[in-house]
User: Fold N-acetyl-gamma-glutamyl-phosphate reductase from Streptomyces parvulus.
Amino acid sequence: MTVRAAVAGASGYAGGELLRLLLAHPGVEIGALTGQSSAGLRLGALQPHLAPLAEREVLPTTAEALAGHDVVFLALPHGHSAAVAERLGEDTLVVDCGADFRLSDAAVWEAFYGTPHAGSWPYGLPELPGVRATLAGARRIAVPGCYPTAVLLALFPAYAGGLAGPEAVVVAASGTSGAGRAPRADLLGSEVMGSMRPYGVGGGHRHTPEMAQYLGGVAGRPVSVSFTPTLAPMPRGILATCSAPALPGAGPDDVRAAYEKALGDEPFVRLLPEGQWPSTAAVYGSNAAQVQVALDPAAGRIVAISAIDNLTKGTAGAAVQCMNLALGLPEPLGLSTIGVAP
Ligand SMILES: NC(=O)C1=CN([C@@H]2O[C@H](COP(=O)(O)OP(=O)(O)OC[C@H]3O[C@@H](n4cnc5c(N)ncnc54)[C@H](OP(=O)(O)O)[C@@H]3O)[C@@H](O)[C@H]2O)C=CC1
Ligand SMILES: CC(=O)N[C@@H](CCC(=O)OP(=O)(O)O)C(=O)O
Assistant:
């Protein structure tokens, strides 16, 4: 079976990573590529690493350009997905890399994004309990944010195992591609290189409610997340350092067993052998996530650390993984867990 896939936002970072993965996918033929300011240009001028597509023209993002495909990937800025998706047929699989359909609570959406809530779609993190089944046959999927992917993979096993209290704390570092490709003065090389800095401190980052919603869903009760993102001087990668109170009686063997149970059979998540710790370098360019966990007995906290590539497992790789599940293809088809080193 060959499916025809269009990518809206082909000139951006997420769109470029989608195309890199789709070029290597044996079951996909690449159809329309669309953008906004870059419409009319050849893709080779924008994504020079995607040589087989160099002569393809970037079309304006319209329903007409995206019609007639089996799958449409949306890699657009927030707030633009609903208007496009509603003009695509119900039989078309629409995989949205943006945030528009991730949150279920309209008031929470409006508080963090400041626009009307578009709705919610099945959430594209198959590793969460019960989620894989909701993706089989789905025709609308919301890919998680990059930070939530890293944090949920690190912490959900502690909640699924009933071992963690409801106050999670997360400090995560991201590479600069997480901010997208649009020019910003605070992302100039001279502002970013050789320095790390926090942003969105004090509960203001829009990924906070996404983490709380899905951790709460696993825990079966509300979970609060104190989330501090930091910007790291690297192009790709997220390292998330997460902790939660260990409930009374939770010992190191219980913690290890809960993580092995939750992650042991996952094709893209590797619970590292005890004593080894995740690194962004080890997952660079791959759809893999690395996870490690420890119990800090003095602090009474479970400490879990994850590493992903924000553009791959954090966006485009997850989108392809979800496409495979939705269409009944083998889940790992076209995706790799092999990184690039050094
Ligand atoms: N970067 C990351 O690590 C992650 C990104 N995402 C999500 O993926 C989406 C894309 O992000 P990213 O690739 O980083 O962003 P970029 O800024 O790199 O790319 C944005 C893309 O959207 C296009 N675009 C801009 N404005 C419009 C518009 N009004 N209508 C149609 N198309 C438009 C741009 O086209 P042009 O260049 O031609 O103007 C470009 O192709 C976002 O929703 C983001 O939240 C999700 C997880 C992680
Ligand atoms: C480094 C950096 O700026 N990262 C982005 C997150 C990117 C992402 O996943 O966000 P979406 O919810 O937009 O899909 C940020 O903090 O806003």
